Predict the structure.
Amino acid sequence: MSAASQEFLRKAIIKSSDLEHRALIQKGMLSYDAAHAKGKSRFADWEGARARCSAVKAEGIANLGKYLIEFEQKIIERGGHVHWAENAEQANDYVVDLARTRNVKTVVKSKSMVTEEIHLAGALEKIGVTVWETDLGEFIVQLRNEPPYHIVTPAMHLSRRQIADLFREKLGEDVADADPGRLVAAARVALRRAFFSAEMGISGANFLVADTGMVALSTNEGNGRLTTSIPRIHVVVAGIEKVIPRMSDLAVLWPVLATSGTGQPITTYSTLIRGASIAGEPDGPREVHIVLVDNGRTELLADAETEEVLKCIRCGACLNICPIFRQVGGHTYGSIYPGPIGSIFTPRTDSLSEWGHLSYACSLCTACKGVCPVKIDLPKQLLLTRRDFIATGNVKPAQRVGFAGFRWATASAPRFRLVGWMGRKALALVNALGLSGTALDPMRVWTKYRSPMTLPKQSFRAWWKENGSKNGNK
Amino acid sequence: METNKTAESKKTGARERILTRIAKANARPRPSPPPLVPLEAIFPPITNPRQRFLDECAGNLTEVFQTANSAGSIEALKIILSTVPPGEIYVQNDSKAELTLHLLRDAIRQLRPLRFSSEGPPAEATQASLTLAHGFVAQTGSIFTSSSCGGRGASIVPPCHIVYGRGDQIVPDIAAALARVPSETPGASYVGLITGSSRTADIEKILVQGAHGPRRLVVILES
């Protein structure tokens, strides 16, 4: 069992019994559920919208090379720089070098999961650059030295009281009544100073548009706009899978992303960036650099079974619907990407033996498959991840023995009857001796927290023989 | 010099290696993609774009002043400015704005210090901005703008953004606005659809207006 796997189990127990945390997540998720349902009702055909988004993203992935080259060419034509990075190190080295040669002291960042994935902020801080996360939620978790809790709402695990305490301690701002409006105002003041002193702004990308060579960025707070408008250098860090064929595809992708992310009809600032500012424009960056990050994505692409994972648009809908996420919360996963998509993406792109256990943080209820706006078959991908995790030798001896026994017992009817009979007798004995829930109980995983199940007197086959025909069945 | 060359070749190497891996995977035969579901089937029809625009603005908290003529627009602007704290107003003044905004500009010249987009970006202390737009989107109640509407900062730095436009600039949906991007914003380094004021719900999912950008987005819509 990997250390990360033990850590998951330890945190899951703590979090699922933390009543304050449960109440906060419950409240957040209920408000999301209502907004999401209302958002979907604005569509004449939500399923049609999902099908179209899925097809558009699939088209981008199936012709990834062609569209990336088209995008790159358009960007370069307008004086932008495109850098390709195979892994986190190459991406970070490029941005760190850029910061060094351009004499950058302060960086403002808008929310970007790929920069979390490659730990870009840490790499910049190592050479003495001050990095400000400017998305409010991201800013809060940065002040707490925490990773984001959720890919869309990074600080949803914190109460306004906790945030007020944090601001008092770290910003010297006393918002006594913890009013959200005044907390936001306090953060705005601190971050405005950062925006106007930063030499470099770093953003992610929601989409890279091939036919027009544009970076599409969605932001509600407007921090993404300030990040890309005020500093003299703009760096975009984006996974290679973000490319879409046409600008016109945004007519459906923008509303679907916003609906799935927050329930909004469209994100407040739905932005397209062609490059650095041109002659006659009063402001905007003088340099634009785009870092295209692979970091394991071509491995997902290499396998016909897994390439659909690259369709993900990071809306967070699968996290919000997941009954496991709702119990254990985002930090329990220990990975940068939590929830169903994270439990596939992280083991596949980082390390299967270290993170493969996350694919078991799933009851196979398939709710995520029903909400995914690009129709990724998440339950199937979780099963495939389990299969490959086991195939690479990550199997406990007890599982090996257990499944060998199961296979033996289910391969013939008499054996199945025998094992069923033995099981009923053995459990009856365990319960009679009062051993239920102890280390000697084979059902301990269930009975540790629950009373023992009432055991049937006979097998289902025997019961059916006696009673099945009573109801007119044959 | 030597290190530069090595860095350069390493960089090119990464590009080629990534593209080679992609090409190999993309060469794999795939089932032919399903036909795209038409947009007309996905979104309900918009029968009255102007009414839809007004309804959506009410929903996303954009303030709209409907005026009949330029005298009405000047009046509306004065009303808006009476609620904006004292200080500088940033005004778009490129050649396009020269034709349409001069009446509004002249009307507030006596009331407020003005700073023009031709003089550079808005200052952090700017209280409001006045710009044009390329259009308005009925489907979502959005302002279709770009860096050729007074730059990038005009729509994000001041706490109040005032947009002046005409009713015939309303397009039915996002698709129609996107179709106009090449002709309306040739070369502009930034293009955007702005839907309501800056907002966040990052603290306990409670909506707060004016996170980093404008707390108020105001449209003067002249017939």
Notes: The beta strands of chain A are 81-85, 106-109, 130-133, 200-203, 207-209, 214-219, 233-239, 243-244, 269-273, 287-293. Residues 19-40 of chain A form the longest helix (22 residues). The longest strand of chain A covers residues 233-239.
